[in-house]
Amino acid sequence: MKKTIIKNFIIFLMFMVITISLFGCGGNTEVINDGRNDGVTKVCLIINGNLGDKSFFDSANEGIKMINKSNPEIITTVMEIGQNTSNWESSLREVCESGEKYDLIIVGTDQMREKLQRISPLYPDKRFIIFDSDINKEANNKTFSNVYSIKYKQNEGSFLAGVLAATWLQQLQPEESIKKAGFVGGLKSDIIKDFAVGYYQGIQYINSLEGYLETNTYSSYVGGFTDSTTGKAQALSQYNNGASIIFQAASQSGLGCIDAASELYKTKNIEKYIIGVDSDQYNYFSTGDTADLDKARRIVTSVLKRVDLSLYDSILSFHEGKLNFGKVVEMGLDSIINDEPVIGLAKNEYYLQTIPQEIRDLIDSIEEKIVSGEITIKSAYDLTLSEFNAIEDDIKVK
């Protein structure tokens, strides 16, 4: 009798162990989907282009490097899929079906949005991040519960660039009754127009203040992000027609603008300046293997869009099971990660040496007013084409 009771008790315990194990497996499946897979997370960053732009994609890659340095439990892969857009969707699908079984797949730019809208519903067990885009845009009321979107308020950082250009030009062009700045964009997309319209509004803001002569600007668009030759030609045209400072938002095409400013100084001793984009481009050209001090000294600051910080933070949150998929976040001047701003101007040592104190103080005060809501900045996302054109036309060099 006693033996029977013990035997039944043992059978009962075995049944409970098996039951708990089954539930545990179910829990592990959910954990894998959350990216924690027994403490190990496998991440793939897809670059729809190539590294080497010293701005946008390189910043994304820096975010991966930050992860690699800080967390050995996260295994990362960076995949460059080149400039041929016809290969992008098939490359994304191949990564989803890869034997690597990535827990998290990351893509960037609005050029990948429609592709991810088609792909992500086919792989409901996968988790995706898209940065610099909103997965829900033009989605015909579809929802994407396995996609996390990161947008950036680049118009806020660009507003500060416009303030810098219009104030510093008062000193750079003392003899001119109308000061001349420039803007070179890549594609005339919503994101690049958002950079542009913020820059224009910053110039307009200074134009409206007493004590400042009017600033006008040249504007041009390369038509793509990989044509540094055209970027250089457009920048040279603007410089030769009187612009002393150009804000370039053109990725690799923008490297040609930096070439133009450097060439004019080296060959003709003509002082021309650049406002860089996305990353601290002065830092890229002043240190390490890419050092070129002639170029670095032309870049007085950069409009920061810290893709690296936002990806670093999101990947860590995913690894910890805290990332809320199906959500769209938008980061602006008030977004701080690791005590560093996601959006703003690069206030490095060269900026501090070059830009006069009174201009830096003005920029800091305007930044505070933007964060507090005292100054509001229009976004290209909310403007019709005619409204955008009206702002651009208002400050164009006549």
What does this entry show, briefly?
This protein is of the alpha/beta class.
Helices, strands, pairings?
Layout: H1 2-33, E1 41-47, H2 56-70, E2 74-80, H3 88-96, E3 104-108, H4 113-119, E4 127-131, E5 147-152, H5 154-172, E6 179-185, H6 190-207, E7 215-221, H7 228-240, E8 245-249, H8 252-268, E9 273-278, H9 281-286, H10 293-296, E10 299-305, H11 307-319, E11 328-331, E12 336-337, E13 340-341, E14 343-345, H12 349-354, H13 357-372, H14 385-394
Parallel strand pairs: 1-2, 1-3, 3-4, 4-5, 5-11, 6-7, 6-8, 8-9, 9-10
Antiparallel strand pairs: 10-14, 12-13
Identify the notable features of this structure and list them briefly:
398 residues; alpha/beta; Rossmann fold; 2 domains; six-stranded parallel β-sheet; six-stranded mixed β-sheet; 14 helices; globular; disordered N terminus
Query: Count of helices?
Result: 14
Structural class: alpha/beta
Spatial order of the strands forming the largest sheet: 2-1-3-4-5-11
CATH topology of the largest domain: Rossmann fold
Radius of gyration: 25 Å
Report the sheet-strand fraction: 15-25%
CATH architecture of the largest domain: 3-Layer(aba) Sandwich
